[in-house]
Structure formats: structure tokens, C-alpha cells
Amino acid sequence: MTDSRLAAALDDFFERFLVVYPIVGLILALFLAGALVQRQVPDLAGAFEPYRLFFQIAIAGLAVAFFRNTIGARSYGLFAPASIAFVLVLAGPFWGVLVFLNVFIISLATAFVVSPLRLGSAPRLATQLVVVGFSLALFRVLGALPELNPYFSATSVFFPTIITVWFADRFARDVDERGWPIPSLRLAWTIGAIFLAYLVMSSEALLSYLMTTPTAWSVLVGVNILVGYYSRFRLTEYVRFGDHFGGALAGLVARGTTIKDRFRGDESPVEYHGVDEVLSMNERNRYIARYNPPAVAGQVEKATIKQRLHRLGIPAPETYAVATRVSDLHALSEEMASRDEFVLKPGDASGGEGIVVVSGRNDDGTFDTSMGSLSRSDLSAHAHRIVQGQYTGLELRDSALLEERIVPAPFFETLCGGGVPDVRVMVFRGIPVMSMTRLPTRESDGAANLHKGAVGVGLSIADGRSIHAFQQSRNRTLDVHPDTGADISDVAIPNWNAVLVTAAEAATVSNLGYCGVDITLDEAGEPVVFEVNVRPGLGIQNATQSGLKGRIRALEQLPSSYDFLDVRRAVALARTWDRAGWPADLESVVTPDEVSGVVRETEVNVDA
Fold first, then answer.
1. Which Pfam families match (predicted)?
2. Whole-number Å distance between alpha carbons of 608 and 131
């Protein structure tokens, strides 16, 4: 082992030690405190009985966290299911589910009724809460559910009711943005999480053990930390990324060849990447925590990044107006009135939510948009919802951006016929590591988001040529675009080196160590940065049929001197490594001259 690698290994050991030491101290302190309580308090069960609620919420939270983190359930929130499960504990599963559905349906119906008014988050949630509160009060007073009265009081369902209203509102917004299938699946996961929380919260044996054995509290915390830290693949990801290791079951037990390959005794089975190469959601979150610390990630808001890009001359859509407060909306509306084409988008949303692309005006004066024909007042109302936090979860404010509409290159139109196609480049330590082009479809309503139905076409970092095409929403491999019929099995992105250089520059401007940069080619074929993503998705691995983790792990082994490479040199090296298949020892395939800057002209300027 070289001196640099030994030093890196020691640094990694001490970094891990500094992380583990406080955790061990916390668990030890909990154990000692539990032992002291267990020794000093004679009747533990009686002493803790008034505080049973805290034990229930603790074990419910752990159960739901396991359900989400290890199983891979995509439920609405963590403590939302645990809070709602209290109703099932108090009233029993039948009446508890009835009350939950009652609150959920009333709140959901109210959300759909007031949706044409395009209210902001605060007044919309308040309206739903008022309607739900009055409805529950009427049920109690009028005796509509007399069997329910003995089980609990109004105070006992106060917090679960608020959570259910939030849950219903989130569901309604998801339906509005994505249609019914995906939110309905998430609703099913959430109901499953509610029942799991109910089962552990109603377990008298488990509650009695925890209340009478305080030393077990530290064990519970330790197990939860270990499972969260060392858990790699969620069980659902063995299905999602099953093609990488020959099927979900092969990923679990075979790790290299499919069960069918082994049964047939094939001497040359299909080469699979294995679980060691694919980046899972849990591992991605750890990379984000390490390379995108909150102090940096918190500053990567769309408007802020646009300012930096413009000031450094990196191509990005021109920003016409930004509204950060309600008082800014008039100026933004006036700016809209003076233009025929633009994009209106939230500054802090994800997944393409809330973006409206305006492509022109109709004869009646309305705007032709990605959401149909809208008037100026409709767009102003949409901007108002954005500013009030419609697309930012629990946040009650956001910024509305009015920016230039980029007309994609004719090359893209021949492939997908319309929409807003782009190229996503994953950048790690300033080096492009994986890429795909996202082609909109009718299913995605012209958006380039994979979860909405866009097609991801994996691209080679070496030359920008297509590798494989995958439609995530339908879990299928494609050779032609589902709408246009265009061949997407042999695509070559023009001006490829410029795309990679622009992506690396944008990532450097963001200060993020791990990010996804979305770029399109304008009418002149020049790259333009749409945005920089702090938490890019993992569907790119199915589009490229390659694992991100193997490449990131190889880049992590490089010495810190690589962090100071010129952007073009970093891109040239990335293309060289891609041609070499991203070996574990990246330095073995480049010469010192290539690293120091005397790079062959063919490596820097080839635009495949």
C-alpha cells in the first residue's frame, strides 16, 4: 500500500472513530441511566404507566422507520402513520380505521372542492381542518357513531386528526401533479405502516417489557442505529434494480448469475453487476450527508444557483423575475403579461412539481401551457400558490421564478416530438460519472421526470452514445420512443464534450460533492443548465444498466489532488476512465502527464 493510500485509510478510520465514539457514549449513558432507574424504582410498571404514550410512540416510530428504511415502504411521513395508529389503539382496528377514513375522506373532498380557488398551503390546510373539526363535532353531538363514544374523547384524536388532514392534503396534491396510480400506491404503503404501528403499540407484552426493563432502552436505540447505518438495500430495491443482478431473488442469494443460469449450468451466463456495484437509496443518503453537508445543500436553491451561473458566464435560462413574497407577485404578473413564452416554476420543489411551461398565446389571449390553456390570472394564482409553499411540503413559503423558455435542439424533437427533454449528468468530486438523456412522453405530460413516465436513455460518458433505454413508470426496456416511434437504441448526443464540461462547471459552482446536473441543448446545439439537484434519483442506473456505487467508490480512492483539477482535464479523465470500464484503480489507466495536464488532444476535444 502506498503512503498516500495508507494515509487515506488512517484518515477514514479516525473519521469513523469520531462518528462512532459519541454514539457509543450515548448508548452507554442510556444503559447506565436505565440500570440506575431499574435499581432505584421498586414498581417500574406502576411508575411508567401514566407515561405509556411515550413508550408507544417510541416503538411505533422504530417500527415505521424499519418499514421504510429496510422494507422500502414509501409511506407519507414517518410519525404520521404512528400518530394515526393511536386511533386504532384507542378504538380498536375496526372503529379506528373508520375514524381515519372518515377524517381522510372529508379532508380529501374539501381539498378537491377548494382546489379551483388555488389557495396557498396555510389557508387550504386551515379550511380542511375547520371542515373536519366541525364534522367530527357533529358526529359526536348527533350520535352518528354512538358505538364510538365510549372509546375516546375529542382530545385523544386531536393530534391524529391534524396529521390525517395533512396526509390527505399531501395525497390530493400528489394526485393533482402525478395522477392517481403513484399516490394510491403510496396511500397503500401508508395504511400498511399504520397497521404495523398499531400492532407494536397494542402489544402489551412488548410495552410491559420496555416499561419494566429500562436497560433495554439502550439496546433498542443501538439496534435501530445499526440497522439504519448498515442497511444497504431496501427489499423493494432488489425488485427495482433486479436486472442488475439477474432478478430480485438472484440479488438476494445468487449475487452474480441468475438462478436459471445456475440451474442450466451455463458456462457463460449474462454478466451482472451485483449488489456491490449498485447504489441503493440508503447508501445514496449517506453520500449526500457526507458530500452535501446541510450548510452547503441549504444554499442550493434554484434562484441562488442561477445567480452564480449567470455571473460566471455558465449558460443557463435567463431569469426574468423572482417573487419571494406575496408583495412581489404584481411585478411578476406584469412581467408575464409582457411575454409570450416563459417558464414559471417553484424555487425549492423537486420532481418537476409546479413547473408550467408557456409556449405561446392563443387567439383569445390565454396562454398555451403544459397545463392546458391558462389565463394570466390563472398563472398569477399559480405563482401565488408557489410563494405560499404549495410545493415545498411543510414549508409555508417558497420563491416563484419566471425564466426564459429554452427551445430544445431539433435533434431532441426528432426523438420525442416535444416537451422539455434534457441530459442528466451525475457529478462526483467534480468529475462526471454517469449520464442519461430523459425524453418526455405523453404519459409524462411533456416533463422529463422518470417517475412521471419519461424515458431514460443511458449514455456513455466516453462518447455520449446511447447504451440502454428504460421507462421506469412501466418497468420496461425500450428500443423506440413510445409516442414517436423514433429509434432510441442508437442515439449520439451532439456537442458531448461541451455538455460534460458545462455539467462539471455547474457542479463546481454549487459546491456540492455529489449532484445531478440537468442540461439541455438549445436551438443552436449549445448546452444550457436547467438546474443542479442535491438529491438526484437512482433511476439512471436502470437507464445505463450500470451501478453508480462502483464508480463512486473508485473515485473516492483518488488522492485529494484530483479535487484541484481543471474542469476540462477532469472531463477528459472521466472519458478515459469510462472507455476503460471504470476500474477499481483509476490511476492505473492514466499517465502522470494526463493527470498533470499534458492530455492528448483526442481526449479533450473529441465531440462524439
1. 7TM_transglut, ATPgrasp_ST
2. 60
